[in-house]
Write a structure and sequence with these properties.
By secondary structure, this protein is of the alpha/beta class. It contains eight helices and four strands; from the N terminus they run αααααβαββααβ. β1, α6 and β2 form a beta-alpha-beta unit.
Length: 156
C-alpha cells in the first residue's frame, strides 16, 4: 500500500482492509495489518474492526485458525472507553506494535516530546510519563519538577 499511497494514514489502510473483502486473498489482508503496525505511531495502527474484517475474510477462505488468532489478539487488548485518557504515556514515540497494545493497561505513544523541548501538558486524568530511551529517562529525571508541574506523574 505504501508503494502506491506514499505515507498512507489509518483511514487509507482501513479502506484497503475493507476492500480486501471484495475478493483479495486473505494473506494480502494480513499483510495490510502488518503494514498498519509498521507505522510510527498508534494512531495509524489497526482497529478491532480492521481485525474483524480480516478475520471474516480468513474464515471465509477456510483459514479458521488464523481468524481465531486474530480475534484472540483483539481480546487481549482489553476494553477502553472512547475518549478515555491513558494512564501511561511513553516518550518518545516509537514503533508501536500489537504487543504494546496487548499490555492492556491504557498505555499510549503519541506525545512527540524530545530532549530540550518544552514539556507537554498532561491529559486531565493522572498519567505517568514513561521514557522509552536512556536519553529521555535522564531528561525526565533532570527536569522532574517541570514535568510534574505540567501535570505528569514520574518514576524516580
Amino acid at each position: 500500500m505504501r508503494r502506491w499511497a506514499g505515507g498512507a494514514d489509518a483511514e487509507a489502510y482501513s479502506s484497503g482492509v475493507r476492500a480486501c473483502r471484495a475478493g483479495c486473498p486473505w494473506q494480502a489482508a494480513l499483510l495490510l495489518l502488518d503494514q498498519m503496525w509498521a507505522t510510527e505511531t498508534e494512531a495509524a495502527g489497526p482497529t478491532a474492526r480492521d481485525y474483524e474484517h480480516v478475520a471474516a475474510l480468513c474464515e471465509g477462505a477456510g483459514a479458521e485458525p488464523v481468524a481465531a488468532r486474530l480475534r484472540g489478539e483483539v481480546a487481549q487488548w482489553g476494553r477502553r472507553s472512547p475518549g478515555e485518557a491513558p494512564r501511561f504515556q511513553v516518550v518518545p514515540p516509537f514503533m508501536y506494535g500489537s504487543q504494546f497494545r496487548g499490555l492492556r493497561c491504557s498505555v499510549r505513544n503519541h506525545v512527540p516530546w524530545g530532549l530540550g523541548e518544552a514539556v507537554p501538558a498532561a491529559p486531565e486524568r493522572p498519567c505517568w510519563f514513561l521514557p522509552a530511551s536512556d536519553e529521555l529517562a535522564v531528561e525526565i529525571a533532570r527536569r522532574q519538577d517541570e514535568v510534574r508541574g505540567a501535570g505528569w506523574r514520574v518514576l524516580t
